[in-house]
């Protein structure tokens, strides 16, 4: 794996860090000797990830946070900066959806809940983090969108795909508005990834079908996305701003 010595000591917040891509990302930054704050509504899961990092010699803290609630987010970011002394990198990884659906059969409450988790959260956490990122010498915002925000697939959630597409546009606004402060904002758009959530939503046959459509003939692992985000946070990507990096094995090419 690549090594980025400049990430040593930098304070990294990972939302949705209790499992899946978020947990892999937290571990990847910890392996680079960054100080990691694992935020999740699953406080016990966040603590498990942070404890494992600490047991391996890294520095990590766990913070219970509802990233769709403004007060909870402000309290969490304040806790991070107080305990770790600042904030350099924000990874907005929290997201997901509960079931495959169509517009016709989706209750308004489900739409609102899904959009809040995948889009409102990025807005709230970024807004709370920006004043602290402006104090960093290498401020980074990395948002996790999705292949569902890049194209329409039959088996997905319209609320999820719409929110993830909006995350890409919000990333552009952040890049344009924060660039003068030396902060970059970029996104990644993962393909269906072998996480516990995906395993619960998809059958084995569906997973095999999706993998067959990928030129590399496999689905992504959470670590594939974590490595992409390490690069975006590194000094090597200091002039990369406002892009969406498609981490999908060539499933779609834009």
User: Largest sheet, described in full?
Assistant: 7 strands, parallel
> Can you count the beta strands?
7
What Rg, in angstroms, do the CA atoms define?
A: 17 Å
Strand order of the largest sheet: 3-2-1-4-5-6-7
Cα shape: globular
Percentage of β-strand residues = 5-15%
Helix run count:
8
Percentage of residues assigned to helices: 40-55%
Averaged pLDDT = 94
H/E order of the elements? EHEHEHEHEHEHHHE
Structure report:
- The structure is a single chain.
- With 254 residues, the protein is α/β, with parallel strands linked by helices.
- 45% of the residues lie in helices and 15% in strands.
- The protein has eight helices and seven strands.
- The chain has a seven-stranded parallel beta sheet with strand order 3-2-1-4-5-6-7, sandwiched between helices.
Tags for this model:
45% helix; single chain; alpha/beta; 254 residues; globular; 8 helices; 7 strands; 7-stranded parallel beta sheet
What order do the helices and strands come in, and which of them pair?
Layout: E1 11-15, H1 20-31, E2 35-40, H2 43-55, E3 59-64, H3 70-84, E4 89-92, H4 108-133, E5 140-144, H5 158-178, E6 184-190, H6 196-201, H7 204-212, H8 222-233, E7 244-247
Parallel strand pairs: 1-2, 1-4, 2-3, 4-5, 5-6, 6-7
């Amino acid at each position: 794996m690549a090594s980025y010595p400049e990430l040593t000591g930098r304070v990294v917040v990972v939302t949705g860090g209790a499992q899946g891509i978020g947990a892999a990302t937290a571990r990847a930054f910890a392996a680079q000797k960054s100080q990691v704050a694992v935020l999740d509504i699953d406080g016990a899961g966040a603590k498990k990830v942070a404890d494992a990092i600490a047991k391996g010699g890294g520095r990590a803290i766990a913070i219970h946070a509802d990233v769709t609630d403004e007060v909870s987010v402000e309290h969490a970011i304040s806790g991070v900066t107080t305990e770790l002394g600042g904030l350099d990198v924000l990874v907005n990884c929290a997201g997901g959806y509960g079931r495959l659906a169509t517009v016709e059969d989706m209750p308004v409450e489900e739409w609102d809940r899904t959009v809040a988790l995948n889009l409102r959260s990025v807005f709230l956490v970024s807004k709370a983090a920006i004043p602290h990122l402006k104090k960093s010498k290498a401020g980074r915002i990395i948002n996790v969108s999705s292949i569902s925000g890049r194209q329409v697939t039959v088996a997905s959630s319209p609320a999820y795909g719409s929110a993830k597409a909006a995350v890409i546009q919000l990333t552009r606004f952040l890049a344009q508005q924060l660039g003068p402060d030396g902060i970059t904002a970029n996104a990644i758009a993962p393909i269906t990834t072998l996480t516990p959530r995906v395993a619960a939503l998809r059958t084995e046959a569906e997973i095999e079908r999706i993998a067959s459509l990928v030129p590399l003939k496999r689905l992504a692992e959470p670590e594939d996305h974590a490595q992409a985000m390490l690069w975006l946070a590194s000094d090597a990507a200091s002039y990369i701003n406002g892009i969406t990096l498609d981490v999908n094995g060539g499933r779609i090419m834009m």
